[in-house]
Amino acid sequence: YGLSALLAVWGNYQFSFLSGAVIMTAAAVIWLVRFRNVSRETEPEAQAPRPERSPAAAPSSSLVFLVVLLGLFAVANNLVKDGLTTWVPAILKERFSLPDSLSILLTLTLPILGLFGAACNTLLEKRIHSFVSLSGFWYLLTAFCLGAVIFFLNFNLWIPALSAFGLVSLFMHGVNNIITSMAPLYMRKQADSGLLAGVLNGCCYVGSTISSYGLGAVADHFGWNGVFFLLLAISLVPVMIAPLASRRIETT
C-alpha cells in the first residue's frame, strides 16, 4: 500500500504491478536456490520410527456443528475485513474527493489497527470462554461501527468515518484470530489442528473472493450506502446466531 501510494503520486500506478512481479520472482529464485541447503541444515541425524496411529474416531455432532458455524463466521469475517481494505481507497476518493495517494495511505491504518485484535482476544478470552460468544461480541461492535459509518458518510465526515473503518478492522482481525488460530489450537484434542486451521482459513478466502467481486457490483447498483447496509446485515447475522449456538454447544 505504501509503494502504491508513492507510485500514485508519481502518476505511474502501472509500476505497482511490475514491482509485485519482480519481488515475487526474486523471492521464488531465493527460495529455490536456498531450500536444499536449509533443509539439509535442519534435517535430524536419525529419525525415530513413527508410532502407529490408531484409527481416528468419527467427529462428534457438536464438533461438526462448531466447525461449520466457525466456517460461516469466517466467510462473513473476511467479506467485511477484506471488503474494507479493498474498497476504502475508492470510497475516500469518490465520496470525499481525496487524492489517490492520500486515500491509499489512509487505508494503511486499517491493518495496523487490526494488529491489536489478537491482544484484545487474549484479554477477553479470560472472561468470555466460548469462541462463538467472543466472535458474536466482536460482530456486535462491528455492526455498531458500520452503522456509524453510514451516518458519517451521509454527512460527509471523512475523519470520523475513517476512525470507524479502523475500529471495524480491529474487531474483524479479532474474529480472524479466533477462527484461524485460537479455535484450532484449543480443539486440538478433538481434531487435527493443522487440518482445521486450513479448512477455516479456506472459508476466509471464500469471503475475500466475495468481497472483491460482490461489493463492487453492489456499489455500482446501490451506491456505497448499499454496500454498508449489506455489511451491517451480514454482521448482525452472527450476533443473532451466537447466543443460540453457544447454548446448543453447551448442552451437547
End-to-end gap: 46 Å
Mean pLDDT equals 84
Uncertain ranges:
none
Annotation, overall tally of beta strands? 0
Roughly what fraction of the amino acids lie in strands? Answer: under 5%
Largest sheet: none
**Element order: H for helix, E for strand:** HHHHHHHHH
Number of distinct helices: 9
Describe this protein's structure.
- By secondary structure, the chain is mostly helical.
- Helix content is 82%, strand content 0%.
- The chain has nine helices and no strands.
- The model has no long low-confidence stretch (mean pLDDT 84).
Task: Provide the fold topology.
Blueprint (H helix, E strand, L loop, with lengths): L1 H9 L4 H28 L18 H36 L3 H8 L1 H6 L2 H8 L6 H24 L3 H29 L6 H59 L1
What's a quick, concise take on this entry?
The chain is mainly alpha-helical. The chain has helices spanning 2-10, 15-42, 61-96, 100-107, 109-114, 117-124, 131-154, 158-186, 193-251.
Question: Keyphrases for this structure?
Answer:
252 residues, mainly alpha, 9 helices, 0% strand, globular
